[in-house]
Design brief:
Elements: H1 22-37, H2 40-62, E1 67-68, E2 71-72, H3 73-94, H4 97-104, H5 108-111, H6 117-143, H7 156-180, H8 184-200, H9 213-221, H10 223-236, H11 243-267
């Protein structure tokens, strides 16, 4: 008599994967990482070079001797550029994850396999954050050779904290964009009219204390500002805002965005129709 396996003895309708499908999560994560690695000149090296050009242009244009928050301008702007590069690339990767599937008709590859909403969100945001940290790492290495850049973090934990949750925030925004968008122009419009302005008006190239009235209020409500201020604190030990308040704001935004993404994917909004 053939002995039945434990899986075949499971009652009908009982889930064989009790909580999290780790194998499916890992497979989807690896798929997304391989997707951007296939075009790494465009997804990793090009953003590194373009971000370094900001450092070159602004430091050369201002010349030597310019101080911001007590630091040489190159040292002040470098951490912000690293954080900005990480966030923009996290968004860029996640904003095309599901959109590519919808455009190419392969969205069923995400919906049919036995992976749940938690696994999809974790894998897609994790891959986007992996790209962000790769870009950030290579930027950090390159900026170590730039004169007057303080590349040794004073508070490594703050660098990791704001780098991690900042990249997660933009990865989740990108994921929501890929759920909403029906074509590449939709994702590009979010990047051009939302992400880019918020990134450039985040205090990356200036201290918000030099602003007044509406512009100061706008900056303090900009979530990019809190990420960059906290990330800069990790390197230089100075910040434009209270780092504990900034951390709380960024983490709260991540929780809200993650909840929205979970509800939309679980309901299949614009994915199953």
């Amino acid at each position: 008599m053939v002995k039945l396996s434990s899986a075949s003895q499971r009652p009908f309708g009982k889930a064989t994967i009790a909580s999290i499908n780790w194998e499916g999560l890992y497979a989807l994560y690896v798929k997304e990482v391989r997707r951007f690695f296939k075009v790494q000149m465009q997804t990793i090296w090009a953003p590194v070079v373009s971000t370094l050009l900001f450092l070159v242009i602004f430091t050369v244009a201002l010349g030597g001797g310019h101080k911001t928050l007590g630091w040489d301008f190159a040292a002040f702007v470098a951490p912000g550029l690293i954080a900005m590069g990480m966030m923009q690339n996290a968004f860029a990767n996640a904003s095309f994850s599901l959109l590519v599937g919808k455009m190419q008709g392969t969205i069923l590859d995400y919906l049919i396999p036995p992976i749940g909403t938690k696994e999809i969100i974790t894998a897609l945001t994790g891959a986007a954050m992996t790209r962000a940290f790769l870009v950030g790492f290579f930027l950090w290495v390159a900026m170590a050779f730039w004169p007057n850049v303080h590349y040794i973090p004073n508070h490594p934990f703050a660098v990791l904290l704001f780098g991690f949750f900042g990249a997660m925030m933009l990865a989740l925004i990108g994921l929501l964009t890929s759920i909403w968008a029906d074509k590449y122009d939709h994702a590009a419009s979010v990047s051009n009219f939302v992400i880019q302005p918020l990134a450039l008006l985040s205090g990356t190239f200036y201290s918000v204390h030099s602003l007044h009235g509406f512009f100061y209020c706008f900056s303090t409500w900009n979530p990019f500002f809190h990420v960059i201020s906290g990330f800069r604190y990790g390197f230089l030990g100075v910040a434009d805002a209270n780092i504990f308040e900034s951390a709380a704001i960024v983490i709260a935004i991540d929780v809200i965005l993650g909840g929205i993404a979970y509800l939309l994917i679980a309901r299949g909004w614009k994915l199953k129709s």
